[in-house]
Amino acid sequence: MQNIIYMDNNATTCVAEEVIEEMMPYLSEKYGNPSSMHTFGGQVGKKLAQARERVAALLGCEPDEILFTSCGTESDNTAIKGTLAMYPNRRKIVTTRVEHPAVLTTCRDLERHGYSISEVSVDRQGKLDLDELGFRLDDNTAIVSVMWANNETGTIFPVEEIADLVKARGIVFHTDAVQAVGKIPINLKESSIDLLSLSGHKLHAPKGVGVLYVRRGTRLGTFMHGGHQESGRRGGTENVPGIIAMGKACERALQNMTEENSRVKALRDKLEKGILASCPDCFVNGDTHNRLPNTSNISFEYIEGESILMLLDQFGICASSGSACTSGSLEPSHVLRAMGVPFTAAHGSIRYSLSRYNTDQEIDVVVEKMVPIVNRLRELSPFVKTSP
Ligand SMILES: *Cc1c(COP(=O)(O)O)cnc(C)c1O
Fold first, then answer.
1. Residue 170 CB: number of other CB atoms within 10 A?
2. What is the pTM (predicted TM-score) of this model?
3. Which residue CA neighbors atom 5 of ligand 1 most closely?
4. Do 159 and 293 reside in the same domain of the chain?
5. How many whole angstroms from 217 Cα to the centroid of ligand 1?
6. Using the 8-state DSSP alphabet, how is residue 25 labeled?
7. Contacts of 277 (CB under 8 A, 6+ apart)
8. What is the CA radius of gyration of the chain?
9. Average pLDDT value for residue range 343-362
């Protein structure tokens, strides 16, 4: 396989070597069931408890507030549907227009089942209108779900402030923090957040493991009934290697957060500056003051994001576009649409999402390749009438 330059870390990340090392024995010789009475299984149970402690340390909460799931999507579903189950007289969910499909599609489905969904809008920078959010809260609201950081633009919402506002009204607050965990410091003890989702594979752990933080005392319905695993909150034999990997990834993230993120941010800023300086008619999407250190979403006017991706792919460069090719028609990203990014620019948006494994040299290569790609596509573009 060709050497790749991977800048699509908001889609998934590589599994860190230390993480693989930590989980390997539990895929081979240490295959016991943590629920077993014998020592062979019991040692696995101890290792699970350690993983729970490591996740709790990263989030600043107690180990018994950590519920392991199969992915970020399951955590989001459990948070929302599990809350609704406990408040049968409340029929409304407040969320935002820019959530991940794991939240938005769940809400749309609940709408078909008679719930009312209220989506708060964002401005041109992707910032949330907190007054509007406040107005939408009422006695019929069961849960408010607002993401911590946006996966497409990296925009960070003031979720701690939002949680205070929501809790003051006696409503449960959930945040999808899949993109935030490991990239910005989180201390749940000092927040009003009730429920928080994260996902292993966005954090250098493998796919197939997620976490839902459930604040002590939070009422939450169970919808995976079975054995007594996860204190009876989620039946099913644990994904032991995945959970151990998740614990290690969280430990790593906590130890290296400050140093790694400042390096990643410097690389991201260099990439962004390089592209903006060398490609005409492009701009950055999102709130550049409150943004994840690893994410850059750039719109290239008059050209298709998909075409840029295909040409980048020829050089082994992996990025992502905001638009999703559905049944042959190109739908611009719902996030950029909610922000009011013009049609011609929303279609030409590219998300570069970095990790600690990117190098300075890779940034130079990507900037260098972008210039001829953009120029070539502009020459073919039906939207550009005359280029000066
Ligand atoms: C990736 C992602 C999810 C889904 O996580 P999975 O583990 O892939 O199910 C949810 N929310 C956000 C913001 C994400 O980026």
1. 9
2. 0.96
3. 72
4. no
5. 26
6. G
7. none
8. 22
9. 95
